[in-house]
Amino acid sequence: MGGSGALLKIIVISGLVSPMVVGKSSLSVNRGSGNCHKGSCQTPTGNLLIGRADRLKASSTCGLYGEDRFCKVSHLEEEAKCFRCDSRRGAPIEISHRIENIIYRHHTAPGYRNKLSWWQSENGKENVTIQLDLEAEFHFTHLIMKFRTFRPASMLVERSSDFGKTWKVYRYFAENCAASFPRVKLYKPDRGPFEPYCESSYSQSTPVTDGEVILRVLNPSSRSNYDPYSEELQDLMKMTNLRINFTKLHTLGDDLLDSRKEIQEKYYYAIHEMNVRGSCWCYGHAAECLKLDDTIKSVPDMVHGRCDCSHNTTGTNCKRCKDTHNDLPWKPATGQHPNACRKCSCNEHALTCKFNETLFEKSGRTSGSECINCEDNTTGNNCELCIPGYYHDPTKPITDIDTCLECKCYNDGTVDGGLCDSPSIGNEPMCHCKSKVTGNNCDHCLPGYWNLDPSNPDGCQACSCNQNGTTSETCDQEFGSCYCKPNVVGKDCDTCAPEHWGLTAESNGCKPCNCDLGGSEDNNCDVITGQCKCYDNIGGRTCDKPEQGYFVKDLDLIYEAEDTKCEGACIKDIQEWPGMELHRGQEKDL
C-alpha cells in the first residue's frame, strides 16, 4: 500500500461497528452515541496518541545525543545509500526522528507538511520499547503500526489498567513463535481473547517498507461468543498504559548482529505512523469526553480522558454515583439498561448519602441509602426518625420540614436523654419518665412521692407519712408535708396535736387529753399514755381522783362575787385553772 493510499477496515468491537480508515483519514474521531437516557451510551473513538506527545516515550531514538548515520538495505547498490539522523532539540526537522513523529504520518510544521515523518531507533538495538502513559482509563480497541523499514522479527504488546503498577500481555508476534516465545500458545481462529497467544502473520521480512502490524483486542469473528458487557471483557479492553516491546530485528543475510558499525547501521526499527484506537472509558454513562483539567491543551481530533457523565454518575470515568444518588449500587450501563444511580432516600432531610450493602440486602435489594447529615431534627439511615428530644408530629408527613417537634420533657424527671413517644392525633407526646415520676412531660412525682431531684435515679423520694395520722397516702410534692387528720400534727403526721394523745387509725387520729380542770396543771397529757400532769396527791389518767389516803374538802370556802370587797373599777386576777385544796384526814373524821 502506498503512502497516499487508504485502506478501509471495519473493526467490530463489543457488538458495535467502528469504521477505521488506515492512512491520513484515520486521524478523525468517530462521534459517540448521545441517547444515554435509553440505555448505554458510547463515547467518541479516535487515535489516543493525538495530543499526547508528552506522554509517549521510546527507550531508544537515533541521533538523540548526537548525529548518527543509518543506511537502507534497499539502497545498498545505489550511490546515496546512507542518511543522517539528528533528533536533538533544534535539529533540522527533516532529519529528526523523535518518537512523537509517529502520531502523524506527515510533518505538521509549516513548510514540511508534505514530507513523511517517522520515528527511528538507534542502530543495532534489538530490545526497544515504546510506551504510552495515559492520564485516565481508556477503552482500547485496536493498534495499528505502519513501519518504514522491516517489521520486527518478534515483539509483544502489553497493557496496564492500573497506571503501570501491573502489566498483562495482549499479544505476541514473531516470525518463528516457537523459537521466540516457546511457552506461548499459537494462534487459532477459535482461540478466545482472554489468553495471550502468538501469531506470525505480521512478522515476516516482507514488505521491506510500509508493512503493518495490527492488534485487535477482540476478534470480530468471535464477538458473538461473549457478552460485550461482561466484567471480564470490559476489563480486557480497559487501559491506562500501553507498552510495545520489540525483541528481535530482521537481519536478512547477516546471521549475527555483531558490533561492526557497517553491519549495525543497516538494522533498526522505524515507524511511519501508529494509531492507538480507543475512547475514554465511561462504563456506558457518557456520550462525550472533556479535558481532564485546564492544563491540557486541546488539539483537534484529540480523545479526551474525562467523561461528561450522565445517569447521575460522576468521576473521571463515571465510575461512581453522585453523592446525592447512592440509593442503589453503582453499575455500568449495559445495552438498553442505563442502570442510572438513584436519588438518596432521605425523606427530603439530607442531600447526600453513601451506599450501604448491608442495608441494601435487608431491604430486599431495593434501597441502600445511609444518609449523611440529616437536618430538621431528624436522624436514622433514611432520616426517618426524630433526634432525641423531638417527636414526630402525627399530623405531618415524615418529609415535612417541621415533622419533628421538641418533646419539652422536664430533664430532672426523664430518662433516655429526654426521649418522648410520638402521640396519636389529638394527644400529647409522652416523655420517658424516671420510675417515680409521672406526667406527659415528666414534671411531677407519682402520688406518695415528693422532691423531684435530678440526682435521684428514681426522680422522687417516697413520702414518709405516718399512715395512722394522714388523711391520704400523698404528701406535698415540693416540701413533703403530709396531710394530717384533725388531731395530728408534724411534717409526717406522726405526732398528736397539743392536748391530744394515742395516735391510731381512727378518723381523728388522736384522742383529746380531757385532763380534769381542777386536778391537773393544764390540759396537756403524755402523747402515748394520755396521762395528765396531776397536782400533788391527785391521781387517775385525767387527774380526777384523790390518791389513796386523801379526800376533797367540803365546798365551804366558795368565793362568791357578791362577797367581794372591791369598790368601783378594779381588776381581780382570777386563776383560770383553779387548784383544788386537798387535806389529809383520819378515816374516823370523814
Folded structure, characterized:
This protein is mostly beta strands and 590 residues long. It is 4% helix and 29% strand. The strands form 17 sheets. Strands 3, 4, 7, 8, 9, 10, 11, 12, 13 and 14 form a 10-stranded mixed beta sheet that branches. The protein has a two-stranded antiparallel ribbon with strand order 1-2. The longest helix has 7 residues, at 231-237. The model is unreliable at 1-30, 75-80 and 577-586 (pLDDT under 50).
Question: What secondary-structure arrangement, pairings included, does this model have?
Answer:
Layout: E1 7-13, E2 16-22, E3 45-47, E4 56-58, E5 68-71, E6 82-85, E7 119-120, E8 128-147, E9 154-160, E10 168-174, H1 177-180, E11 198-199, E12 212-216, H2 231-237, E13 238-248, H3 261-264, E14 270-280, E15 286-290, E16 306-309, E17 313-314, E18 320-321, E19 352-355, H4 357-362, E20 369-372, E21 378-379, E22 385-386, E23 390-392, E24 404-406, E25 420-421, E26 430-431, E27 437-438, E28 444-445, E29 449-450, E30 461-462, E31 470-475, E32 482-484, E33 488-489, E34 495-496, E35 500-501, E36 511-512, E37 520-525, E38 532-534, E39 538-539, E40 545-546, E41 550-552, E42 582-584
Parallel strand pairs: 10-11
Antiparallel strand pairs: 1-2, 3-14, 4-8, 5-6, 7-14, 8-12, 8-13, 8-14, 9-10, 9-13, 15-16, 17-18, 19-20, 21-22, 23-24, 25-26, 27-28, 29-30, 31-32, 33-34, 35-36, 37-38, 39-40, 41-42
